[in-house]
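Worked problem 6 (solution included).
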Amino acid sequence: MGSEEMNREIERAIVRSFGWAVIEFEAALFQKFLVVSGPTSLMTEDMFRRRLKDMEAKGYLTPVEFQGKRAWKRLIIESEMDEPELTADEVKAFLEKAKAMERVRPEKKTGDGLVSESRALATQILRSVEKAIRPSPKRVGTPSMIDHIEGMRHALAESREGFLEYVRKNLPRLYTQMGKLLDDNGEEMLLLSLRVIESGHRTYPPQ
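Solution. The predicted structure is:
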């Protein structure tokens, strides 16, 4: 195994060490990494910290302070490590492509309809998560709320079952509702709505 491939495997192991978590304490993440990488790992804490810094530079992780301790926030899942994040321009291009396709198939939903549907669905998701995590909702877009949006998107990108399991563990009050949204709208539309939120469209005014 070449050095580049070995580095990639180490990075994958670090991302895998988060499990379903979006944020993890640095010390706990190191211990989980040792378990994931196996007893033959020769990684020290200093070496591990340098790896985290390298992954931060690549946009895979970002450091945060959580409960007064140093922690890391995962920005990507393992299956996405070889794929660029969907940017706002890419979302726009996707919707423009949908519009072009509808000119050929007018009986289907229009591109504008897709925009409206994904926006409405994103609004519904944000409001539901807001109510689930705080008894007195404040401004939409707080870090804890976006963490859940990212967590759901990461889980859904892997599988439908993973998405439902994330909701069951982290947002149990929304399990039935999110399951219905998934059934009614499909995985692609729900995933698009979550990615649109992450791409900068994080606040929607009340209707």
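Discussion: The mean pLDDT is 75.
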